Amino acid sequence: MIEFVKDTFLVLGRIFTIIPLLLFITLFMGKRAIGELPIFDFLIIVILGAVVGADIADPDIKHFPTAIAIISIGIFQRIIANWKISNRKVGRLLTFEPTVVIQNGKFLNKNLKRIRYSIDNVLQMLREKNVFDITEVETAIIEPNGALSVLKKTQKHPVTLEDMNILKATSTISFPIIIEGTMYSSVLKDLNLDETWLQQQLVHQGVSDIKKVFFASINRKNQLHISLKDENNITVPPIKH
């Protein structure tokens, strides 16, 4: 019983001493390590969590070496972060390249597969950017930290009343109707359309086989937008970090 109480107070003491130290080291590492979490910083956070967790949970682990380990990890991260800033080659080795996933309103199937992102992932990220229609997008890029950057087409940039002296038109929303060759009949039904209409629209845009369609959406004006699985005629801008 006495040993149990002793271990309990030891664990509590470690919590109250290690958390302020961890907070200090995290602040020392900088805002970037918290807000963006590139791959290297993510690994550092995971390692710190493992070290702190082991120290708190196991009273047999010596406390002072754990504190030294935390400080050393923080200093190591700071050194690498400064090295990445001064040497761009090192920065490229320790992170991902930005990847263009949409160009001229078209999904780039090969790029999505390469970074293992699904259409649903990108559509959600677009909605978080207040983009509900893929046709509004000139270029969309998955950044090294996993965030999505969106460049809207010029005509889709927000217009103020002062700019045009007119009321801005209502934004449009598009509905996914084909994803990776699979048609969603329920969406057609909700829009009072049918499969025959869809097939006619596909043929009109030069698509004879629905299986060739990577993504297709339709807006309130019944305008169909298509991204093929193999978009070979799209020029992708050379985005680098």
Name the features.
241 residues; alpha+beta; CRO Repressor; four-stranded antiparallel sheet; 49% helix; DUF421
Task: Draw up the topology in text.
Elements: H1 2-29, H2 31-35, H3 39-57, H4 63-86, H5 88-93, E1 99-103, E2 106-107, H6 109-115, H7 119-128, E3 137-142, E4 148-152, H8 161-164, E5 174-179, E6 182-183, H9 185-190, H10 195-204, E7 213-219, E8 224-228
Antiparallel strand pairs: 1-2, 1-3, 3-4, 5-6, 5-7, 7-8
Helix pairs in contact: 1-3, 1-4, 3-4
Family: Belongs to the UPF0702 family.
Organism: Anaerobacillus alkalidiazotrophicus
Domain YetF C-terminal: 86-218
What fraction, in percent, of the residue positions are helical?
A: 40-55%
Instruction: Compute the number of strand runs.
Output: 8
Helix count, DSSP H or I runs of 4 or more residues: 10
The main β sheet shows up as:
4 strands, antiparallel
Quote the beta fraction: 15-25%
Distance between the termini: 59 Å
- The residue ranges in which pLDDT falls below 50 over 5 or more consecutive positions are 31-35
The succession of helices and strands, N to C, reads: HHHHHEEHHEEHEEHHEE
Oligomer: single chain
Structural class: alpha+beta
Query: If you average the pLDDT, what whole number results?
Result: 79
Question: What does this entry look like structurally?
Answer:
The protein is α+β, with helices and mostly antiparallel strands and 241 residues long. The protein has three domains: 1-92, no CATH class; 99-156, CRO Repressor (2-Layer Sandwich); 174-228, CRO Repressor. It contains ten helices and eight strands. The protein has helices at residues 2-29, 31-35, 39-57, 63-86, 88-93, 109-115, 119-128, 161-164, 185-190, 195-204; strands at 99-103, 106-107, 137-142, 148-152, 174-179, 182-183, 213-219, 224-228. The strands form two sheets. It has a four-stranded antiparallel beta sheet. The protein has a four-stranded antiparallel beta sheet with strand order 6-5-7-8. α3 runs antiparallel to α4. The chain is elongated. The protein starts with a helix and ends in a 13-residue tail after the last strand.
